[in-house]
Amino acid sequence: SSKSPLEQLLSSLHDDQDHCDLFRQWLESSTVSTELGKRGFHRELTTTVELRPNVLHDISVLLLYRWPNGVYVDPYQLASLSAHNDWQILLDSSIDLEVPAHKTLGFLSYVYLSNAGSTSSLLKATIPVHGRYHEPSLAGETFTTVHIKPPDMLLRTGKCLDRLESYAVVDAPCTVSNSSMCPWVKINRQQEEGIIIFQVPVGDGSVVMPVCVGTLLVTIVCCVALSKYMLKYQII
Amino acid sequence: MEMGRLLSKLTEKHVLLFTTSFLIRLVLVAYGDYQDRNMVVKFTDIDYHVFTDAARFITQGESPYNRSTYRYTPLLAWLLTSNIYLTLVFGKMLFILCDALSGVLIYKILCMQGLDCKSASKISSLWLLNPLPMGVSSRGNAESILSALVLGTLLCMEAKHLACAAVLYGLSVHMKIYPVTYALPIALALRAPEGRREEGRQKQTWKKWVTFIGSFLNYELILFVSVAGAVFFTLKGLFYYMYGWQFLHETYFYHLTRRDIRHNFSPYFYMLYLTADSRGSQWLGLAAFLPQLILLLVASWAFHRHLAFACFLNTAIFVSFNKVCTSQYFLWYLCLLPLVIPHLSLSGKRGSGLLLLWFAGQGIWLAPAYFLEFEDYNTFFLIWMAGLLFLVINCFILVQIISHYRHTPPAQRLKTE
C-alpha cells in the first residue's frame, strides 16, 4: 500500500529512532577483549569484539591501538596477510623495523573490522606483533616488560549523534583509504583493565666489562695467531 | 654403487654438469613459485620482495629508496624492472643464471691454472651441485651476481685481460663494498716484477722503500686503476645525480656505520649491543676494526702471488672479523673456495672433518638464537659465547687451509704425487 509523504516521513523517523536505540544498546553492552599468543620476540595480538545485541545492521567498527615504543608491526607482513583477512589496518606513521625501543616512539594503528560476511556476533583481528630490542638492563634483569593497552573500540553509524553525552566522540579516518575524517563514538571502558604484558629478553648491562674484555681478548688472540701462520707460510 | 657411478659421470663431463645444474635451479624456482602460492611458509626470500618493490618505484618514475630496507645499488633495481614489465620470476632467472655462470667461471679458471678437465669439472661441481648456492639464488637473493663478477675478475686477471678485469672489478665494488679488500692483492700482483736481488750488498732502507713504491707505478697497475676507477665513479656519479644523497647513504654509509645491534654471527655482537649508547662505543668500534684491518694487510702481502687464494683469505677474514655477520656473507668466500681446493694437501677425511666443524659452529650458535627469538629464553650470554667459538673455529679452519696450501701448480703436483 502506498503511503502519503507525511506517513513516509513519520515511518522513516521511527526507523531512525529504532536504529539509534540499537546504536545506544551497542555502545553500552558491546565488549572487546585481547589476548597475546605465541612466544619469543614474535607474537600475535588477538582482539575479539562482541556486539550486543547480536543484530546485523549498518554499523562500522574501528579498533584504535596505541602501541608502545617497545613493539612494532611489519607493514609488509601485514600487506601480505591482508589478502586472507577480513580486517584492514592503517598505520599513522612509517615504521623503522630495526631501531631499538628507546630510540623511537610509539605509534597508532586503526583496524577496520568488517562484519559483512560473518554470521556470528564475534569479530576477530589477529595482528602479528614483534618486540624491539631494548636497552640492556643495568640491574642484571633478564627480561623487560612492555605494556600493551587494549584498543579503544569506536563505532559509527549513518546518523545518531544526539543524546550521546556520556560517550566521547573521536575523529578518525572514515575508511582504511584515509581520504576523510569522520566522528566516531568511543565505547567506555575501565582504564586499567585488560593491559597485556609482553616480556622481552634484554641484555645484561652489568657484565659489560667482562664481555668487552673477553671479546677483545679472543679476537686479538685469533688475529695474532692467524697473522703468525700467514707470515710463516707466505709465498714470496 | 649405481648412484656413485652416475654422480661421477655427471661431475666429470663439464657440459652435462653445467646443463644439469642449471636445470636443477630452474626446477627449484618453479617449486618456489608453487610453494609461495599454496603454503603459508613462503619459499621466496623477503629480499626478493624488497628488490621487486624498489623496481616498481622505478617504473613509476620514483626513487627505489622509497622502499624501506632497500640498501643496494639502484643498478639492481633497474635490472629487475623486468620483474614488473615481463614476469615476476625474471629476477630469479637472472640470479640462477649468474649462479650457474659462477660455476662455469670456476671451471675455466681451474683449467687456465693447469688442472685437467676431469678434475676441474669435479671441483666446479662442488659449487654447481651444492644446495646452498642453489637455494640462495632460487629464493631470490642477489649474491650470485657478485660471485659471478668476482670470479669474472679473477678469470680476466688469470688471462691477463686487464681492462676486462678492471671493468668487472669496478662493477663489483659498486654493487657491494667487500671486494674493495681485493684492491691490495691485485695492486701487489700487478706491480713491476722485482729486479734481480743484489747479492751480498745491503741496500739502504730508504732505497728499498723507494724501489718498493716505485714498483707500483707501472703501466699495468695504472691501467687497472684508471679503468676500474672510471667505471666505479661514473656509476656513482650517475646514480648520485639521479637519486641524490639517499643513494650514497643507503648503498655505502649505512653499511660502514651500521649499528644494527640484533643478534648475528659476529663475535662483536654482544659487546656492541651492551655498549651501544655508552661514550666509549666509538673507540670500541675502532678496536673491533683493527684486527680485521691488520689481518687483511698481512693476508694481502703474504699471498698476493696467488691472487685467488689471497682473495679467498681476504674475504674469509673480512666476514669472520666483521661487526655484523649473517649467513648470506658466507657465500662471498665459498664461491672462491673451489679455486683453492686443488692446491690443498688435506686428506679427504680431514677436509670433511673441517667442513663438519664449520657446520657444527653454526649449529651451536643457531640453537640459543632460536630459543631467544622464538621461545622466550634469555640466551644472550650463550649466543655471545657461541659467537666467540665460531670465530675460533673459523680461524682454526683458515690456519689448516694456510698450512696445507701448496703453491706448486696443481698439474705438476698431480704428476709427482
3D structure, described in words:
The complex is a heterodimer of chains A (236) and B (417). Chain A has a six-stranded antiparallel β-sheet with strand order 5-6-3-9-11-10, with no helix packed on it. A four-stranded antiparallel β-sheet of chain A has the order 1-2-7-4, with no helix packed on it. In chain A, strands 8-12 form a two-stranded antiparallel sheet. Chain A has 236 residues and is an alpha+beta fold. Chain A contains three helices and twelve strands; from the N terminus they run αββββαββββββββα. The longest helix of chain B is centred in the last third of the chain and has 27 residues. By secondary structure, chain B is mainly α. Chain B: Keywords: Endoplasmic reticulum, Glycosyltransferase, GPI-anchor biosynthesis, Membrane, Transferase, Transmembrane, Transmembrane helix. Chain B: It comes from Nothobranchius furzeri.
Would you kindly provide a brief summary of this structure?
The complex is a heterodimer of chains A (about 240) and B (about 425). Chain A has about 240 residues and is α+β, with helices and mostly antiparallel strands.
- Termini separation of chain A (Å)? 108 Å
Contiguous low-pLDDT stretches of chain A (5 residues minimum) are none
User: End-to-end span of chain B in angstroms?
Assistant: 27 Å
Q: What does the average pLDDT of chain B come to?
A: 88
Largest sheet of chain B: none
> What is the CA-based Rg of chain B, rounded?
23 Å
Biggest sheet strand line-up of chain A:
5-6-3-9-11-10
Q: Give the largest chain-chain interface (CB within 8 Å).
A: A-B, 45 and 54 residues
The helix-strand sequence of chain A is HEEEEHEEEEEEEEH
Sheet/helix structural class of chain B: mainly alpha
| Percent range of helical residues of chain B | over 70%
- Specify the helix fraction band of chain A: 10-25%
- The total count of strands of chain A amounts to 12
* Low-pLDDT stretches of chain B: none
The gross shape of chain B turns out to be globular
Biggest β-sheet strands, sense, barrel of chain A: 6 strands, antiparallel
Number of helices of chain A: 3
Number of helices of chain B: 22
What is the N-to-C order of secondary-structure elements of chain B (H for helix, E for strand)? HHHHHHHHHHHHHHHHHHHHHH
Structural class of chain A: alpha+beta
Mean pLDDT of chain A, to the nearest integer, reads 84
GO molecular function (chain B): alpha-1,4-mannosyltransferase activity; GPI mannosyltransferase activity
Organism (chain B): Nothobranchius furzeri
Protein name (chain B): GPI alpha-1,4-mannosyltransferase I, catalytic subunit
Subcellular location (chain B): Endoplasmic reticulum membrane
